[in-house]
Specification:
Layout lengths: L4 E3 L18 E6 L14 E5 L7 E3 L20 E8 L8 E2 L1 H4 L3 H7 L1 E5 L10 H4 L3 E2 L1 H9 L4 E4 L10 H8 L3 E4 L11 E5 L10 E3 L3 E4 L1
Parallel strand pairs: 5-7, 6-8, 7-9, 9-10
Antiparallel strand pairs: 1-13, 2-3, 4-10, 4-12, 5-11, 11-13
Helix pairs in contact: 4-5
Length: about 220
Amino acid sequence: MKRCYIDLSYPIEPSMPVLPNYPPVEVTILDSMAYQELGGARRLNSSRIAIGLHTGTHIDAPFHFYSDGATFESIPLEQCVGQTTLVRLSGRGSFAPITPQDILAYRKSIQQTGKVVFDTGWSKMWGDPAFFLDHPEITQETAELLLEWGVHLVGVDFPSVDRPPFPAHLAFLGSGAVIIENLANLKAVRTERFYLTALPLKLVGRDGSPLRAIGEEI
C-alpha cells in the first residue's frame, strides 16, 4: 500500500508572518547560476538564511524557559517521533481555553501515545494579525493533567500554548516535555491517531528550532 504523508508545516520564506516584534526571515543569495558568464567559472545556486528559532512551525526545548533545561542535542529522537493522539476541537475562537473537560474522552489514547496534538481550526487565521494575538490557549490545569497522563510532546495549531505568565509552558518544559507550535494542515489528518515525525535541527545549546512536521495516518 502506498504510504500517505501529510505536511503539517508552514513554508519558510521572507514574506511569512512572524510574531510581533520578532525578526523577519532573511535569505541572502551567496551565488547564483544567473551570474554564469559564457566561458567563465562554473556558478551554482547557494544561499544563507537568518531566522528566529521560534518562527513558523517550530519546537520549543525545555531550555526555552529553564536555564538548566534540555537542548536539542540531548533530547531523545523518540520524543519527537511516534504515534500521536489528535484532539479535534475545531472552531475554537479568540482566547478560547482548552480545559480538562476537552481532553477527558481522549485519556486512554493519550496515555498510550504520550504525544498529543490539538487541532482547534485556528490555522485558518494564518496571515491575519489576530493569529498571533487572539489565539486559544492551554490552561494550567490541562497542562498538569496531560503531564499526569505521561505526555512528553504537545503540539498546537496556534502560535503559543499560553500567554504570560506562561503556566502551560512552565509546566510542560519544566517536566522535560517539548512543545510544537504553529502546526498546519491538521484537517488533512483523518484519524484520531497518526504517526508524527517532528525532528528539530540538532542545534547545540539552543531553545527552539524550525521543523518540518510530517503526519502519516495509521
